[in-house]
Automatic annotation (TrEMBL):
UniProt keyword annotations, A-Z: DNA-binding, Transcription, Transcription regulation
InterPro entries per UniProt: LysR-type_TF_proteobact-type, LysR_HTH_N, LysR_subst-bd, WH-like_DNA-bd_sf, WH_DNA-bd_sf
Lineage of producing organism: Bacteria, Pseudomonadati, Pseudomonadota, Betaproteobacteria, Burkholderiales
Similarity comment: family membership: Belongs to the LysR transcriptional regulatory family.
Gene Ontology annotations of biological process type: DNA-templated transcription
PANTHER family: HTH-TYPE TRANSCRIPTIONAL REGULATOR, HTH-TYPE TRANSCRIPTIONAL REGULATOR PERR
Protein name (Swiss-Prot/TrEMBL): DNA-binding transcriptional LysR family regulator
Length: 297
């Protein structure tokens, strides 16, 4: 059997991932009819249907699922081979995608540490709120925030992350806090991001806060942490994300460690075929060392 045209395989992968001919067309810079033509051509060569239509769009057939699993690794290999051929032989490129708060507040301040330990690796970092696909081989690792239940990828959770109330020293000097119940009369900052929310945290301390309102509300951790550092209230946030501001004295935990709640909220996600890449192994080991250093203080 002859090998199908590469553009047909790329169109198939994009449609399979986006579950839409129109979205795949936008991604590939083609018309929807051109993408449909490539799919028809591929199915004609294979001799079997790769998709079936459902109420939610296109769904892979069992043949399509097997074919996607087979070609995804091949596309990634082609991408890496092209990258190696076009790059300096003495420098490897590590492409990392990250959730914005982790990238801005944890990763960025530590880039010099990574560079010092790995001066033969060029680190390219991109941040967005979407989980990336590894099928095109562009990204090596994705740092994701959530519950870590993604399938068909390797997931390594960053250990030692705790959620706790945080405030600026200036705020606490002006508005002393002695007990969790005291927080009910303070300016509280609400953030949608932490896996432990104020209601849950108060519940763990035995404080009823059903009617407590918030002075500020944000959908991103870096915004709530920055607001707390400005002395505008108390945020319930990740000590790991706040570690640089804590080290700089801009934020402090309001209570001792017994009031912090451990979570597994940030994860290093990568396809299985990337696990043995030296640049990936070194990045994972570096993250682990840095996270352990944070715990030691």
């Amino acid at each position: 059997m002859r090998i199908p045209p590469l553009k047909a395989i790329i169109a198939f992968e994009s449609v399979a991932r986006t579950k839409s001919v129109n979205r795949a067309a936008d991604e590939l810079g083609l018309t929807a009819s051109a993408v449909s033509h490539q799919l028809s051509n591929l199915e004609s060569i294979i001799g079997q249907a790769l998709f079936q239509r459902s109420g939610r769009g296109l769904v892979l057939t069992p043949t399509g699922e097997r074919y996607l699993a087979d070609v995804t690794g091949s596309l990634a290999d082609l991408s890496r081979a092209t990258e190696r051929a076009s790059s300096r032989t003495d420098v490897e490129i590590l492409r990392v995608h990250s959730s914005p708060s982790f990238g801005l507040m944890w990763l960025l301040p530590r880039l010099s540490s990574f560079q010092e330990a790995n001066d033969d690796i060029q680190l390219n970092v991109a941040c967005s709120y979407e989980n990336v696909s590894f099928s095109n081989g562009f990204y090596d690792i994705d740092v994701r925030h959530g519950y870590g239940n993604w399938t068909n990828v390797e997931v390594k959770t960053v250990r030692g992350e705790f959620i706790a109330p945080l405030a600026s020293p200036k705020y606490l000097a002006q508005h002393p806090v002695k007990t969790p119940e005291d927080l009910l009369s303070h300016r509280l900052i609400f953030s949608e991001s932490p896996l432990v929310q104020w209601k849950q945290w108060f519940g763990r301390t035995g404080v009823s806060a059903a009617h407590k309102t918030f002075d500020f509300s944000f959908d991103r951790s870096y915004m709530s942490l920055e607001t707390a550092a400005l002395g505008l209230g108390i945020a319930l946030e990740s000590l790991m994300l706040a570690s640089v501001k804590i080290r700089e004295g801009l934020l402090v935990p309001v209570f001792d460690a017994s009031f912090a709640v451990e979570v597994g909220a940030h994860h290093l996600v990568y396809p299985a075929q990337n696990a043995d890449l030296p640049r990936v192994e070194r990045f994972l080991a570096w993250i682990e060392r840095e996270a352990a250093a944070d715990l030691r203080g």
